[in-house]
Write a structure and sequence with these properties.
The complex is a heterodimer of chains A (about 650) and B (about 280). Chain A is of the alpha+beta class and about 650 residues long. Helix content of chain A is about 25%, strand content about 30%. In chain B, helix 5 runs antiparallel to helix 6. The chains are: A alpha+beta (about 650), B mainly alpha (about 280). Chains A and B meet through strand 24, helix 7, strand 33 and helix 11 of A and helix 2, helix 3, helix 4, helix 5 and helix 6 of B.
Chain lengths: ~650, ~280
């Protein structure tokens, strides 16, 4: 028996430790332990940080690059600043004169042998960035990181928190701490994404782009004044009262790519529970009357994605932060298990920005926080996917639209399409361009809008069921990993091939090739419809004695023709609904390749109307007005608009008479 | 003179001169159609045979409007410029109308007729409109300036929360509306005095109207404001939507006629008061 205990006890201990660590969802490559103290007087953070990196490759690694995102706000020569975005809040002369810039000072950095690497720190500035940029700090190691082994660094650092800068910083008593710590880049072994050889992926902070992080575990202890309500990535595991009116909050998070936290004495914490997830809404008192809008939309999103992707939200906690008015700089953003969604006191119910933003950011938990694409190199892969699902969820749960006020109703999907097509130049960049190459406008219209509309068009092409299979397969294979666009394309073609054979597979390949790598616009139109009355046969046929002289047939016979055009470069297969004057209709198909196409009929029927894409499967088409033609237009709609316009003008003029 | 009697007398004046409402309605409807008709032609030429046109019956159609703007928007530019010009012409025409309406209500220069009076007093009414227009702009600007400067202004750095942006309106909006309506009565009173006294220099009648209004405002003000409130209520009523576009249009037209009648009734209020108290 004693021998059995000796054998079993270590096993029991090992299993217990394993269960405490939790079953890993991700490789847990970058693991952080941070102890920090927030100085609310000077708006500074003092921290000790330990990072354990598990080398996922068979490469020997000699460097470790860190993102120092705060240095985007260190001076006006940073890449972020020079790119064209003036850091929000630093536009005022007051800030410049008060020298309210941000920085991170590394006080000490030691490897696992205790060797100081302070003299081995170098800022990297790739060609596309400003020479003075300091947002990428490379540590050159004395001892390399061996293949598949772990490596630990211990850092001590000090930071000055930016004042009301884009997405991060402080405003009055509100702190939103995003990208606030030295964050290791992502090591991509050969074959990951575009890496032909193993490489670090750690770009400077460009104004257009967001972030790219590696999965890992976080344990973060935050010490700050006790009156501050704190929210963070992960779950609160410990809270202890400290000296001089401080409290230490310990948060842990597993299988996340980032750690973000927020604090404000004015926060109210509204707790809820949904699908085995603790929901917490941090909101200021003057916005609390809107709490149901936040919680409902978060729940709708969790429900929808669990069903659609067949994968329930896997984390135990989701925190939604609604910042105060002076915290609007923190924007609407997604972080691991924590999202921000601003609102205003007087926001009407008919303007659904609260719901739209919450839904959008919670979707990001799946696309970017779990399927961790590189937002800097391929922003469309998270924003486009998220915008695609945002429209679907909004249209399902809020069918009256994003805007529903004073007789104006605009649906989420149509608004997304409309904003894309209203970009100053929808052809300025292909989606395949790196985010920082979008230098001449239309970034959000393309990365969000074009990508979402492209996915909607893909859904129209393959059908809703196959599209769901594509998305499920993509999510299932790439969750907690780092895919690139080719990984999605391969899966889309594979699933489409299984569902619809080679024809559908090649159509999907063609669509995605054009939509991701090309810049052509899509526009098909009905150019012309004609019905010509055919005369009976006249003249000599079999002989030269029998002459056919009838001028009219007993029953009319028509030669009916419809000509369709492809006006732009994008090619996509088309369905065409042709309706005749006897009430019958026929659905025709066109591969959409040629510049023009003809449909012709010889019958006793005349064409009354021709409609391209009658089921609205191709939202990518930039002009739906010319997609149809009818010889019997229903002008009641035109009169409706004109009557409204007349009345509106009369009202305006009548109001003016009060002042005349 | 009591407020109720003033109300009664003003509507009696209007009943005697119903043609003023008809003239004003026809004038505004004509200009509105002149602006809208070319837009109809443009819409028909580009989208007249599109099946999407039938969807306009369902109400506001963002997709149609956005696609039309993107594809055919260049055609709107000259149309818009023409509309702005038409609107400016209308403003001048309404000043002309008021120049004819006031003497009609005052029963003055009846031999000249409505349009004759309009031409005779036009430039004085136009100058008066410009002076009071500047006053309205000044008041609006001052109100806006106070709103933006009050307390911590609009500064994200300094404001404690966004409720203050709404609560400021609770104080400023009533004050602004009271002052604006006061200026409107003053303006209409000045019209009556200018026409009755045949003044060519306007500042003396303006000052006189101010003094007399300051003494007698308790009688005139409630009636005038009542009419303004009814106009606001009719704006909301006229915005109702019905199943058929024609019903919606007709209900809106009735609301518009009533609004014009109330505007003229306000003119009649100051004329009736002026006639009783000052002549």
């Amino acid at each position: 028996m004693k021998k059995l205990h000796i054998i079993l006890l270590p096993l029991i201990v090992f299993l217990s430790v394993g269960s405490l660590a939790g079953q890993a969802l991700s490789p847990r490559t970058d693991n952080y332990r941070i102890r920090l103290t927030l100085d609310t007087e000077r708006h500074q953070v003092q921290a000790r940080q330990s990072i354990v990196f598990h080398n996922p490759s068979t490469d020997t690694i000699w460097t470790m690059p860190f993102h120092i995102y705060y240095h985007a706000f260190k001076n006006n020569q940073s890449t972020f600043f020079q790119d064209g975005n003036r850091p929000f809040g630093l536009a005022s002369e007051k800030d410049v004169l008060a020298c309210r810039w941000a920085w991170v000072d590394i006080l000490s950095i030691e490897d696992e042998t205790g060797y100081s690497l302070l003299d081995s720190l170098f800022y990297l500035t790739p060609p596309a960035s400003s020479e003075a940029d300091q947002t990428v700090l490379e540590v050159r190691l004395r001892n390399p990181i061996l293949p598949l082994s772990s490596y630990r660094l211990e850092l001590e650092w000090y930071s000055q928190i930016p004042h009301m800068s884009i997405r991060t910083g402080y405003g009055q008593d509100y702190y939103f701490m995003a990208q606030w710590y030295p964050k290791l880049g992502v090591y991509e072994p050969a074959g990951t994404r575009f890496a032909e050889v193993g490489q670090w992926n750690c770009h400077p902070y460009y104004s257009n782009t967001e972030y790219y992080g590696e999965f890992g575990q976080y344990e973060v202890q935050i010490t700050l004044p006790s009156d501050h309500v704190v929210g963070a990535t992960g779950v609160l595991t410990k809270q202890t009262e400290g000296e001089a009116g401080t409290t230490t909050h310990t948060f842990t998070a597993n299988d996340v790519i980032d750690f973000t936290w927020t604090a404000c004495p004015r926060f109210l914490s509204v707790k809820d529970y949904w699908r085995e997830v603790d929901l917490e809404l941090l909101i200021v008192p003057e916005h609390q009357h809107q709490q149901d809008r936040f919680l409902k939309s978060a729940k709708h999103t969790l429900d929808y994605l669990a069903a659609y992707l067949d994968y329930a939200y896997p984390y135990p906690k989701l925190t939604v932060v609604s910042p105060p008015y002076y915290g609007l700089f923190s924007g609407a953003m997604e972080y691991s298990t924590l999202v921000t969604s601003p609102t205003l006191y007087a926001l009407p119910l008919g303007i659904k920005t609260t719901e739209t933003l919450v839904i959008h950011e919670v979707i990001h938990q799946y696309f970017q926080q779990m399927v961790a694409t590189n937002e800097q190199e391929e922003p469309w892969m998270d924003e486009g996917f998220t915008a695609f699902f945002e429209s679907k969820i909004m249209d399902q749960y809020y069918p009256r639209g994003v805007v529903d006020i004073w007789g104006v109703q605009i649906g989420a999907g149509e608004l997304r399409r409309g904003r894309f097509l209203s970009a100053s130049n929808i052809k300025v960049n292909p989606l395949s361009d790196f985010g920082w190459w979008f230098r001449h406008g239309s970034y959000s219209e393309l990365v969000y809008g074009k990508a979402a509309v492209l996915l909607s068009t893909l859904e129209g092409l393959v059908g809703e069921d196959t599209m769901r299979d594509i998305m499920r397969t993509y999510f299932d294979r790439w969750k907690f990993r780092h895919p690139c666009r080719e990984d999605f394309i391969v899966i889309a073609e594979e699933v489409a091939g299984q569902a619809g054979g080679e024809t559908l597979q090649s159509q999907v390949a063609d669509l995605l090739q054009q939509g991701i790598y090309g810049t052509d616009a899509c526009d098909y139109s009905v150019h012309q419809v004609s019905n010509q009355l055919l005369p009976p046969p006249q003249g000599f046929f079999e002989s030269t004695t029998d002459c056919y002289q009838e001028l009219e047939r007993d029953e009319p016979l028509y030669y009916s023709r419809a000509i369709l055009f492809r006006n732009e470069g994008f090619r996509v297969p088309q369905e065409i609904l042709v309706t005749f004057d006897d009430g019958t209709s026929v659905l025709e198909f066109w591969d959409g390749q040629a510049r023009s196409h003809e449909l012709s009929y010889t019958s006793n029927r005349q064409i009354v109307s021709v409609q391209l894409d009658p089921n609205n499967k191709i939202p990518l088409d930039k002009n739906l007005i010319n997609n149809s033609y009818t010889s019997e237009p229903d002008v009641s709609g035109l009169w409706y608009y004109l009557a409204n316009a007349t009345t509106w003008l009369q009202g305006l003029m009548t109001n003016t008479t009060v002042f005349l | 003179m009591s407020t109720l009697r003033l109300l009664r007398d003003s509507w009696r004046l209007i009943r005697r001169h119903l043609h003023l409402i008809v003239r004003l309605y026809v004038l505004i409807l004509t200009v509105a159609i002149l602006i809208v008709w070319p837009a109809k032609t443009l819409l028909e030429s580009y989208a007249g045979n599109s099946l999407l046109l039938s969807q306009l019956n369902e109400g506001f159609n963002y997709t149609f409007l956005n696609d039309f703007k993107n594809a055919y928007g260049a055609g709107w530019v000259p149309l818009f410029q023409q509309s702005v010009l038409s609107f400016l012409v209308l403003l001048v025409a309404i000043v002309f109308f008021m120049a004819g309406a006031v003497p009609t209500l005052l029963n003055q220069r009846t031999s000249a007729g409505f349009w004759g009076n309009g031409g005779y007093y036009f430039w004085r009414m136009l100058r008066l409109t410009v002076y009071f227009g500047l006053l309205h702009l000044g008041l609006a600007g001052l109100t806006f300036w106070i709103y933006t400067q009050w307390g911590d202004g609009l500064s994200l750095e300094a404001l404690s929360d966004d409720t203050v942006l709404v609560y400021r309106l609770y104080y400023l909006a009533p004050v602004y509306l009271i002052l604006t309506s006061w200026i409107l009565i003053w303006q209409d009173s000045a019209k009556a005095i200018i026409i009755q006294t045949e003044a060519t220099w306007l500042f003396r009648p303006i000052a006189r109207a101010f003094r007399q209004l300051a003494r007698q405002w308790a009688t005139v003000y409630p009636v005038y404001v009542l009419h303004l409130l009814l106009i606001a209520a009719l704006v909301a009523w006229g915005a109702l939507r019905f199943d058929h576009w024609l019903v919606t249009f007709l209900v809106a037209q009735v609301a518009l006629v009533l609004r014009m009648a109330l505007r003229l009734a306000n003119l009649a209020v100051v004329v009736a008061w002026y006639k009783k108290k000052l002549l």
